[in-house]
Amino acid sequence: MKRYFLLTGIVMLFSISLFAQEVENQLSKFNQNLINEKSPITDTLVFNLPNEGTFLLYFNNQEHSVESLQEEFQPILEKATKFPEFETKGYRIAESFSSTRLEAVKYEVENKYVQHLDSLEFTFPVGLDYTGGDFTPVAGFRTHLNLRNFSFGGSITNHIYFPPRIEKNIKVNSSWFVNAEFSWEKYSRENKKNTVGIGLLMNDTKSDLFSGTTIRAFYKHQLNKNIAIEVGVVGTENLKTFYPTIGVRFW
Fold first, then answer.
1. pLDDT digits (tens, 9 = 90+) for 206-245
2. Would you indicate the residue range of the signal peptide (predicted)?
């Protein structure tokens, strides 16, 4: 097995024998045997921190290179002010199991050792829904309080419906919903990739699409920082009629 030391920005390479070491993301014995067969440890990357703590990464060089792992973890460890002094912490990197995947390990390290600052986020999402057989453009305002592992907040969204034209007259229905939302993501702090929410129609006047008490429930999955897919259901006419919805959101 090869072991890499990172000292003042210089990576030094030398060979040593593998020694038994407990890792923070330890798998069950059965899964450990599976992962050792599929992607055995070939290399160790060692980060020596300013507080004399030591951070170890065990990995297979067919899955990751020392350069790529150094690039991924160096910025995180530079901010790891909560890493314990004089202690050694090790993690296994392997893509076969969720808890040992690169993104999962990065998230856990950042979550445990980097000081987190709560933040308030404001966005102006737009998108397009397919609701009860009709396309409805969506635009709105969204605010969330981002905490360490999740965020919560609300949004106001306008669901625009264009009824069939009568005598070439164009009519536009605006349906304003106020929504409560909760977001989380197990393996990423930057993007809360999963969101559930419930919304209430605020309009007093009847539209061609919604009338009476109208409530929407939805689930949104973030594909990347700019695009999300949203599915849900809308109950209208005092919750006597239900429409399935599917749509796309930007920002």
1. 788 898 999 999 999 998 888 999 999 999 999 999 999 9
2. 1-20
